[in-house]
Amino acid sequence: MTLLTLIRHGQTDWNLARRIQGSTDIPLNETGRAQAADAAAMLRGERFDHVYASPLVRAHETAAIIAAHLGLPAPLTTRGMREREFGDGEGLLVADFLEKYGSWHGEVPGAETLEQVTERALRSLERIARAARQRSAPRAESVLVATHGGVIRALLLHASGGTLPRDGDLLSNASVHRFVAERGGIRLLTEVGVSAPL
């Protein structure tokens, strides 16, 4: 078993503008850097063996800030935890995206499906868990992974059997979601920083 703490990256200017980022490599803004530092303060006192991050700069910088605050080595990169590719939808305002494509599940030229995102993220987490078992078995490692809202949403849907996140739930920047990786899959433990619809 491996304990997995997934954290969404801090805020970017495109998050602030409610613009679809996808694979577009947008850096953190000052608020996002402060959110990463606040997340590190919240996580202080917990034991983490390793830190991983999506290769996109907003997630990698979030992980690097947290690792530095917690006295951990620089984050390792895991490509499978990069954000969902939104194809022709990237760069659009969220409202315009939803108007044009109908929903997050609409067919968008060049975009990944949620199923594709789920499959690659699960493969990435399995590789992380396998490496953790090889390093530390029988002790269970605790691993922090900085990733993206679309990836976390896909994993929540998978682990909850489609009940989470609820319609309208927003996954806040720097929100924390805890899973356990066991042979054969992942199980949700807790989520922090999910805002319910009004």
Automatic annotation (TrEMBL):
Keywords for the protein's UniProt record, in alphabetical order: Glycolysis, Isomerase
Chain ranges passing through the membrane: none
Keyword Isomerase part of the UniProt annotation: yes
SMART domains: PGAM
PANTHER family: BROAD-SPECIFICITY PHOSPHATASE YOR283W-RELATED, HISTIDINE PHOSPHATASE FAMILY PROTEIN-RELATED
Name of the featured protein: Histidine phosphatase family protein
